[in-house]
Amino acid sequence: MDDPTVTLDEIRDILRELPGPDLEAASAVATREAQLPKPPGALGRLEEISAWLATWQGRAKPRVPIINTVALMWSAIILIDFSFPLYFL
Question: How buried is residue 43: exposed, middle or buried, by Cβ count under 10 Å (0-12/13-18/19+)?
Fold first, then answer.
């Protein structure tokens, strides 16, 4: 059986091979944020998160997998709903 243990050096090697941040995408997000009809900083932390996400996705308009999030939410609700009566057994 293979040993799934990974050494710290192997993790460091993997991290070195990852692509760096896309600074052009970050610049495009900052430009777009400045053009939106809202006071600067009105969205607070959400602006920082969108810039970070765009930088690492390499796209000016970052994507968030909403469908997966909704599916996960419904799965949690169903699991809680059906397992709740078992708590009282």
Answer: middle
Query: Which of the 8 DSSP states describes residue 8?
Result: H
DSSP secondary structure letters along 30-83: HHHHHHSSS-TTTTTHHHHHHHHHHHHHT-SS----HHHHHHHHHHHHHHHHHH
CA–chain centroid gap for 57, Å, is: 9
Whether 39 shows a pLDDT value over 80: the answer reads yes
Task: Output the pTM of the full model.
Answer: 0.54
AA identity, residue 80 = I
Domain housing 25 = 8-88
Query: Six-digit token pair at 67?
Result: 């469908």
Whether 35 maps to a domain, the answer reads yes
Q: Give the mean pLDDT of the chain.
A: 80
Q: How many domains does the chain have?
A: 1
CA dist., res. 71 & res. 77, Å (int): 10
